[in-house]
Sequence to fold (280 residues):
Amino acid sequence: MKKLLFLLLFSALSSAQTNVIVSIAPLKTFVDKIGGDKIKSSVMVKQGSSPHNYEPQPSQMREVSQAKIYFAIGVEFEKVWLEKFKNQNRDLIISNVTKDINKTEITEHHSHKDDDHNEALDPHIWVDPINVRTIATHIYQTLSRVDEKNRTYYFDHLDVFLRELTQLDNALKETLKDVPNNATFMVFHPSWGYFAQRYHLRQLAVEVEGKSPKMKALIQLIKEAKKEKVKAIFTQPEFSDKSAQIIANNLKIKVIKTSPLASDWSENLKRLAKAIANKE
Fold:
């Protein structure tokens, strides 16, 4: 009987999942790809909310208390909340997946610049599949350090995911192959800078740092969009898009809702590329 109880206890312990919390839905997608059924993951920023000013719910703070790892990706709310998470759970391992990725300044339109404007680094590193290779490697390293007995499992999942990322990169290049270098696509919030850099495109942003443009800047944007033959404006459900609608109405172009926070991350990038290439 004792032997049976020991075996049941050992089985329960060996199959126990590591509790993991991530900041945004795409990062949950990456963590789940590598962690598989060895982890239990939850996402902090709920759908429709903005990671710029998110405030965790009490139920999420309880999850923090029980978590082993928090994967941080450098979105704005983490600047305030990471320290609070650590105070909530002293044993929490905070893993920064942005290490070794060169962040660039948020791409903005010259007409938005104000004298008191400080250049900010763009946190949206995950919209570039090559950056996600680095993110995935950091996830693997942290999981295999915390749960060493499953290191081989995590490595095998990492290997599969890295191949998927190569296939995605190739598919995006194929979709965009007839789009001229430095072709402009218009966005409301400047979230797609790393995607634009990777595929030799240029994002023209309506809004920067949460501020919609004044009328003079809006007129300038409309002129530039017309000159660049912009076909659509990409807006996010997390932000108001009143200015984008004004531009779209003036240019008689469509507004496409798409979010860099979508959980179907790879399909979302494919949709974006097809819309830019006018293949939708």
